Amino acid sequence: MPEPQRTCPAGAVVATLEKPPAHLGDGASTARKPRGLWSDAWHDLRRNPVFVVSALVILFLLAIAAWPSLIASRNPLSCDLALAQEGARPGHPFGFNGQGCDVYTRTVHGARTSVVVGVLATLGVAVTGSVLGALAGFFGGAWDAVLSRIGDVFFGIPVVLGGLVLLSVVSGSTVWPVIGFMVLLGWPQISRIARGSVITVKQNDYVQAARALGASPARILLRHILPNAVAPVIVVATIALGTFIALEATLSYLGVGLKPPTVSWGIDISDASPYIRNSPHMLLWPAGALAVTVLAFIMLGDAVRDALDPKLR
User: Fold this and answer.
1) What is the pLDDT of residues 176-201, one digit of tens each?
2) Of 35, 33, 54, 183, nearest to 121 (Cα)?
3) How far is CA 102 from CA 99, 109, 126, 187, 250, in A?
4) Complete domains list, the chain, with CATH
5) Among 239, 253, 242, 241, which residue's Cα sits nearest to residue 160?
6) How far apart are CA 45 and CA 39, in angstroms?
């Protein structure tokens, strides 16, 4: 007699069909998992040549700002008047300034001052503006109205003119008065952006659901709103970092920012201006370093903006 056919249980058939192909391995399900906003942004940034180039330039600037002696072992304050305005020579590729100081050494050491001022000013502006803007956008009402009007007052103050007035009465050569001035006049821009982003995010369904479940305002703001509203702040802060570096050089050039013996690109540009026709190398190198630094941060901010803004993808 013919042997009866055996049928597999239905569950076995389903299990067989649901099992991924052997050549895909265990990572098949992981590959299908959708990426979040930050992982998707990082995925795009790694493939953006603008981001890669600007990030490499910024990493180099951060390295020489932290350890300038790696590529410039001389003292930037060591000068010889006999070499004043001399051009390039062996061991001194950028020549000498009007005081006989090595331009190459001062250009390298000037990166530390510019980076420190830019980073600290950006952190101060980002934290102050984000906190005030998030509170205004979340609570609204009188708090929003008061902060918005205060921000409008600071928006009406010209930055350079305000620096000339406020910093002219400050004595000393430290970076803190310059940083404090930048934070004082820079927070309204970040505050306005943070406020608008928080107002947009707090209308989402998951925020309303958290509020309906009884979550406290602090928990809603910190756990649900800020992580989803911080992207525009990061973009603007990245671009503003380059702007603050340029602003520090402008104020130092005008004589109200950093003062000697502090080594700064703005101070060197100011000192070289009277000799631009006879000794252009004194102005070329610090001005070129400043331009490359500001451009790198602006390019980085543009790349981050394109990666974090879903409308641009």
Assistant:
1) 999 999 999 999 999 999 999 999 98
2) 183
3) 9, 11, 36, 38, 22
4) 57-81+91-312 (1.10.3720.10)
5) 253
6) 10
